[in-house]
Amino acid sequence: MKDVILKGIEYGKKLNADFIDVRYQNKYVANYQSQDGELTANTGSRRGLCTRVLFNGALGFASTTSIELKDLKTIIEHATKLAKGAAESKKEKITFADVKSHTDKAISPRIKSLSDISVEQKINMIKEAEKVYKDYEDIKSYTLGYDEIIDHRIVGNNEGTLIEQATMIPTVRALAIASRETKIAPYQEAWSKAKGFELLDEHPLSELAKFASEMALKNLEAELPPGGSTNVVIDHTSVGIIAHEAVGHCSEADLVEAGSFLKGKIGQKVCSELVTMIDEPVIDDGSGWLMYDDEGTKGRKVEIIKDGVLTDFLNNRFYAAKMDMKPTGNARAFNFDDEPLVRMRNTYIAPGDMTEEELFEVVKDGLFVTGMMNGSADTSGEFMVGTGQAIEIKNGKLSDKVFVGPTMTGNAFEVLSSTMGIGKELKLNIGTGFCGKEQAAKVDAGGGLLACVVILGGN
């Protein structure tokens, strides 16, 4: 494929393109799931080529499911015509920031290749985990799932970049729904990482099923927590949702330009000086692994917020040029026929210097909120996170009292301004790990435990 791509680029040069890149992708996706004993399996792959052509400040894009050179030439011609046609009336000219060209091959970490594990073994794993639920009378419904993505990409351009990148990302998930009389209590646990099948050694599906069942049964017995403004310690899952959904999206250059909360605030304090928030291309145990983005730019670590001050945005080459910023390597496309967008990778609130016990002490009276069921936010920083469970903190220590997981709401920047402390340990995990901004993207998020003030839905 590299030879096809290079020949396509040479052909594009002859059409007088100012810039041309070509991207190849072959993506295999599998989903194995049991819902209350009904097993389903879906697998499939998509491969193809796409190209972007820049001519006189206008950009044309085209794609094909063929991987033949003749068809690549056809879409290059089509993209060139689109660019030339748009250039005649385009007022705001597109330019790309300069980046260093690379020729490289990048492979995500793995010990046990997903391709070496048989379908039978993956299905048997689910069947074994199903047995766990039979031990719990009040678990009335369940879902078990194992998913995987095996992705191979090559991107080249007329500036000398030629990057081959291979990733594999397994996901394991367990949902348990407890029910008694009129009360229903769900709980979900999921892990997704850029690694091989060793993820299932670290987080066995049977153990996830057991944990989800026990948490659901605890919630079945639990009361709703007190509502209103509350001192809390938030675990890494909900910290990740706040970092990704409420702050991270506000820092994506296209959404900044559209008027996000962070527009015009570079150099300004936006939250507590205890908070540093980072988006990183490659991090241990992060499922948002992306050494090079889909423009061939080598990703760099971005300190979005440093000691409470907004310092950087996430961008692609277009927005880097427009905003006069250094490219960050955040251009991502889910499939070969998608155009790259500015997307996050592994986004987290940097760990602080406090132990778990010290965080409980600084909160004094409040709740330790754990687990994440769902979450959403908008570009004003307003967020909503449905959590799994809450444990009472009384006089600076955890008590035995458990509450049903509350819904946390607020403005992320106000919440982060109320930060009382951040835990020492960095953990990333936002469950199944997908972001849905226009097209899907595999991401991860987390941070240290966070002591702060949020608004809780409850009694």
Protein architecture, described:
With 459 residues, the chain is an alpha+beta fold. The chain folds into two domains: 2-221, PmbA/TldD fold (2-Layer Sandwich), CATH 3.30.2290; 228-457, no CATH class. The strands form five sheets. Strands 1, 2, 3, 4, 5, 6 and 7 form a seven-stranded mixed β-sheet that branches. The protein has a six-stranded mixed β-sheet with strand order 11-10-9-14-23-20. Strands 8-15-16-18-24 form a five-stranded mixed beta barrel. Helix 1 runs parallel beside helix 2 (69-87) and helix 3 (119-133) runs parallel beside helix 5. The model has no long low-confidence stretch (mean pLDDT 96). The chain has helices spanning 2-14, 69-87, 119-133, 199-202, 205-221, 236-248, 253-257, 317-322, 356-363, 412-417; strands at 19-35, 38-55, 58-64, 103-107, 139-157, 162-180, 183-192, 228-234, 277-280, 302-306, 309-310, 331-332, 341-342, 346-349, 366-377, 382-394, 397-404, 407-411, 421-422, 427-428, 434-435, 441-442, 444-447, 450-457. A hairpin with a 2-residue loop joins strand 1 and strand 2 (38-55).
Low-pLDDT stretches = none
Overall residue-averaged pLDDT value: 96
Intertermini distance: 60 Å
Structural class: alpha+beta
State the gist of this model.
By secondary structure, this protein is α+β, with helices and mostly antiparallel strands.
Q: What attributes characterize this protein structure?
A:
459 residues, alpha+beta, PmbA/TldD fold, 10 helices, 23% helix, 39% strand, globular
